[in-house]
Amino acid sequence: MRLQASSLVGRDAQLGLLGRALSEAQQGRGGVVFLVGEAGVGKSRLAAEVVGSAVGAGMGVLRGRSSTTGPAVPFRPLTEALMALFRTGESLDDLSLGPYRPVLGRLIPDWNTGAGDSSSMVILGEAVLRLLMATDHGRGRLLVLEDLHDADPETLGVLEYLVDNLEYSPVLLLATVRTDFSDALDLAQSARRRGTASVLELSPLTRPQVLDLVAGQLGTSPEDVPAAVLERLWEGSAGSPYLVEELLQSMIGAGTLVQGPDGWRTVGDPRGDVSSALARGILRRIDRLGTEGLTLLSAAAVLGRRFPLTVLQQMTGVDDRALLSHLQAGVAARLVVPDEPAPDWYAFRHSPTVEALFTQLTPSQRAELARQGAEAVEKLHPQLPGEWCALAAGLRSEAGEDAAAGRLFAEAGRRALAAGALGSAVTLLSRAETLLARAGDPQERASALEPLLPALAESGDFDRAFDLVEHLHALDSAGLGASRLAILHTRLAKVAHTAGRWNDGNQQIDRAREVLGTCPDGAAAASVDVTAAYLALDTPGTDRTQQAERLARSAADAAERYALPAVACQAWELLATVARERDPQESRAMLHKALSTAERHQLPLRRMYAATRIGGNDWLAEGDTAGLLSAREEALRLGSINIVHTVDGILVLDGVMRGAREETREAAVECLAIVRRLRLAPAVRYLLMSLASLEAHRGDRRAMEEALDSFAEWEGAGSQEEPLTLGMARAFCALMEEDRDLAREELGAVSALERHNPSTYHLSGTRGVGVLLDVLAGDADRARHEEVAATAVGQMRWNRQFVTLADAVLLGREGQGERAGERIDTALRDAAAYPAALHLGLRLVADAAHEDGWGEPVAWLRRAEHHFHEQGVQAVTNACRAALRRIGAPVHQHRSGTDGIPEQLRALGVTVREYEAFRLLADRLSNKDIAERLFISPRTVEKHIASLMNKTGAASRADLCARSTRLPEQ
Q1: How much is the pLDDT for 107?
Q2: What is the DSSP string of 171-209?
Q3: How far apart, in whole angstroms, are the C-alpha atoms of residue 835 and residue 661?
Q4: What does the angle CA 25 – CA 30 – CA 34 come to, to the nearest 5 degrees?
Q5: CB 132: neighbour CB atoms within 10 A?
Q6: Across the strands, what pairs with 63?
Q7: Which of 100-104, 753-757, 798-802, 966-970 has the highest mean pLDDT?
Q8: What does DSSP say about strands 141-146 and 171-178: parallel, antiparallel, or unpaired?
């Protein structure tokens, strides 16, 4: 007997919220709702109810589902959902998508130009959003994505962008996620915390709700449900609607629950093992379909929880009529359902059905069905485009054909890597490597290892990558060709470089060169050279930059000869890093050459690296972080953990320089915990250097030394970051302690260090604050200043502010006070983003300006004194006060209200009471009126006005009143 269709029980509150969300989407206020719950709790049933409501309201509906079996396929649920647009008969050729149309070719085969696409997940997410909005037609759109706990990383990357940007669109995104740990669940919880999505957690049904569900299924009233049945279903289901329905069906099928003239009654003991009862009940329903039906569903189960009818028909040889007849019977038996988002696809209602079918198959029968499935897929789709390659690979693996499966998984992994789908690539290539190792095919195994090693490095899984060293030894003894083996050693050397393990990397380079020694190969040697160049740049030594540049030049030339675009990109990126010190334009040209090469050859990871370096150059030149932030977003979508945290480190140092202490400290500590866990040594060192600098800029030597002690533990000696620890941290800390001699000593140590271990990091101070200190001490003349000012490093914004201040001091000594003042103004514009450096610079030059009779040393000292008092840097605060006293200027106390005085007036020494009177002058009030407003005597007002005219230089009371009217609103 068939049970009646179940109504939705216990979900009224969720339905109400979802109904309101649909209405708001129709009014242009879209959003995101995650349905979260355990398997079988009714997420799909609730989603189906919402789909019905959306269709009833005239909204367009798109549905996609992640694969619950088999390997990950990039963008699968999105492709399934969007393909429904092409089945409506509506022409999509005239949509106003502009440059976003070719981007969508990654998801929509009909729009794939074949040229490839390396755009980031951000751009792809925007393209999807624009497509959804362009096809809305004023009706509102519902996008349903189910089973996101099984989604590939790339789908989640696009989904994250949609979550953050659907608020002002007519689109409601409804996603289902299990409560098991997954990246999708993390995304849902993060979106809820940000306020960009709602999360509806579906709890199991209560006992009364289970009773209502059973009564609805049996077509009777709750009072007429036998108590023993309710007890059995409540205990066996734990409130899971799916288990309630399956157990109820099993009881009826087994004859323990029957319907008589007086209603439903039990026969015998309805209690039993839940799992066995489920399996028996499912198999009884399958048996009713007959032998051919059982064969058909068994073949479908081997294909996966979701299965394509074309492949199933090719496997079994049944005709159209028999196929549809058996499927309709399967639907009636509540075993399978049409997979609505995808045409000609069906799906088993629940995974226990698949498991029950497998119990009826011997291992050999299951392997044979998998082989037939693979052959069917390959015959119907000879080039195995899209997800077919991974599906065929999984079937070959089920069939026990390790070599064939491994080759297919490797091909699917290479495709995923080429598309920037890093997470899927690692999964597919790892599976390939394991299978090919078992198959004993060294050549094919090497083909899987070559892309797997850098993919593991980019995703931050260094331990696993280094574990593969033993695999290389095995391949060596298996007789793998010299060139292939050299490439594998080179790949592992690159992993070591990314992890900051230059000794391990150099050992792998030596092994690669040793292998190639007997069988020279120019193309393989180019790959060895470019990786060796990066390692040379990080390996301590006096000539490391020259050696790195020589190797990179060699690699670039070879890449040109042998058409190796990836090698060419890497070589140009390193050459640009070295060239930055001598010629920023040359460096920029090289990076754009790398960027265009990566785009032309569809190399998304190399494109991301070039974009990151361009952003880094912009930051050094002018303090602009926009390029870095854009590159970070792209790295995040591509899954490049290394670049994400590299950029994070730079942004932390930028925050230190900009004085954003608390936010910067929080970001640094959070990021440091991650990179320490991942053993990303370069990122750890950079963050520890930045934290040390943060403490130094507030004059906390103890905290600075603690950070530097940790820095030393991460192989800090001889590293690229070491000069920064002396310049940005130790020298600055000495200046905050008013110890210029110690600061110059630290900067002298930087110079000595850079002679022995040249660095491509250029903010250590030797061509910045060090020049200013040398000029102030009389140890640097005009020629030395001009030498530094002419360098690219001296022109970087952080360094430039100090170099310009040094120029002002020299001009003042030369009797050119007016020009010196102009240079101070220029320096202050450069320093505007860096408050600590700006006020430190004013404090440093004030004494020289006073001695040489130029500028506004009193105003500068007052401004610096106020800043460092607010920041709690007592040594510099006291030094500013002492300098003011030496000059003969009054030193003001920090009374309440000082912060409200505009900086330009505070620098002139205007007091709180004087400022209060000054503001009232804007209304042209008399002294008597001002006195009444401030509750002071007219005589006191008269004194304040006189003092204000003296401090501001106002020619008259009318002039003073005019200046007051120009004050910004308080």
Answers
A1: 82
A2: EEEEEEEESSS-HHHHHHHHHHHHTS-EEEE-PPPPHHH
A3: 12
A4: 110
A5: 23
A6: 144
A7: 798-802
A8: parallel
- In Å, what is the CA distance from 201 to each residue of 24, 178, 197, 447? 21, 10, 13, 45
> In the numeric block, which tokens belong to residue 669?
């500590």
Most confident of 246-260, 280-294, 656-670: 656-670
Residue bearing the bigger pLDDT, 431 or 934:
431
Bridge partners of 173, per DSSP, are 32, 143
Q: What is the average per-residue pLDDT within 435-458?
A: 85
Tokens of 411: 């091909």
Contacts of 576 (CB under 8 A, 6+ apart): 586, 587, 588, 590, 591, 594, 613, 617
Three-state DSSP at 679 gives: coil
3-state secondary structure of 10: coil
What's the pLDDT score for residue 276? 61
Q: What is the DSSP string of 680-717?
A: -HHHHHHHHHHHHHHHHHTT-HHHHHHHHHHHHHTT-T
In 459-500, which ranges are continuous DSSP H helix?
A: 462-467, 469-477, 482-498
Distance of CA 628 to the CA centre of its chain: 12
Q: Assess whether pLDDT exceeds 50 at residue 970.
A: no
> How do residues 48-82 score in pLDDT, each as one tens digit?
999 999 999 999 999 988 875 555 667 888 988 88
C-alpha span between 610 and 306 (Å, rounded): 41
Residue 783: Cβ-neighbour burial (10 angstroms; 0-12, 13-18, 19+): exposed
CA–CA separation, 952 vs 969, rounded Å?
A: 19
Element (H, E) at 171: strand 171-178
Taking the C-alpha atoms of residue 205 and residue 240, their distance in angstroms, rounded to an integer, is 6
Q: What is the residue-averaged pLDDT of the chain?
A: 87
How buried is 184 (Cβ within 10 angstroms: 0-12 exposed, 13-18 middle, 19+ buried)?
buried
